[in-house]
Amino acid sequence: MHPQRTTSFTGLDAVLLLVLAGAAGWLAWRVTTVLGYDWDWSFLGRTILRRSEDGSLAPGLLLKGFVATLRLAAWTMLLALAAGVAAGLCRVSRSLFLRLCARTYVETMRNTPPLVLVFLFYFFVGDWIMTALGAQELAYGLSEAWQERLAWIMAPPGRLAAFLSALTTLALYEGAYIAEIVRSGVQSIERGQWEAAYALGLSRWQRMTRVILPQALRRMIPPLAGQFISTIKDSSIVAVISIPELTFEGLELMAATYRTFEIWLTVLGLYLLACLACSLAARRLETRLARRAA
Predict the structure, then answer these.
(1) pLDDT 10s per residue in the chain (294 long)?
(2) Which long-range contacts (CB under 8 A, 24 or more apart) does 136-144 make?
(3) For the chain, what is the total number of helices (H) and then of strands (E)?
(4) 59: which strand partners?
(5) Rounded distance, CA 278 to CA 65, Å?
(6) How far is Cα 131 from Cα 16, in angstroms, rounded to an integer?
(7) Model pTM?
């Protein structure tokens, strides 16, 4: 068992913080003096929380966009995990056909610009498939209470088709990377583990689910956490099809107020907050799994 490492704030950390603070101050000074920019942070509070007509607090545009980003990232990761695990297991399958299908999927997604995929799926899934399935009409046919639940879980009925096309695009795109994480995790397990499980008379499915995957999962946690953080950041690309997530709301606010630096610095801070929280949660999960295995 490795001794637990302790972290401490060192002099080098203090120097780095001072350098970063100095660089930020210099940048703000340059923007103010060279560009003649008039900083105004007073309106930003209303973009997070605002007073509604009845006097109660309601989420502002940036907070709505932040929640929409987290919701889209959570749905994306859920579907991407399903697609990635299936494709990853196919990548290590004995069947040549399954291996070829999985590799075609992975290589196609990883070697195509995500922006192209967003537009392709928006016109294909949003316009054709959702129209053929009548998804939007079904959503409008729900009661008002269920429409509100649908808007909270996914999107309002009027934006459901665009949301589903964005979700499909991101899930397939991120799933390709998760497939490689699963494949490498399974293949990293020592051959002796396979042989020991085989000696116990377990079938291939039992060997995979009871022996190999539980061990591989511990090795997959760090890259999966990185992929989830990447999903949060990649979700900003669907702003081009008017999905009201954080980047889109930032663009709308900037067009209305011309407060470029204040808005984008706030958007940057919100993305950083979400990614750091995911990183911390993944580290704790990794530590807990390591303690159980010890």
Answers:
(1) 455 556 677 888 888 889 998 998 888 888 888 778 888 888 888 888 888 877 788 889 999 999 999 999 999 999 999 999 999 999 999 999 999 999 999 999 999 999 999 998 888 777 777 777 777 778 888 888 888 888 888 888 888 888 888 999 999 999 999 999 999 999 999 989 988 988 988 888 889 888 999 889 888 988 998 899 999 999 999 999 888 999 999 999 999 988 888 999 999 999 999 999 988 888 888 788 777 766
(2) 136/160, 136/161
(3) 14, 2
(4) 49
(5) 18
(6) 54
(7) 0.83
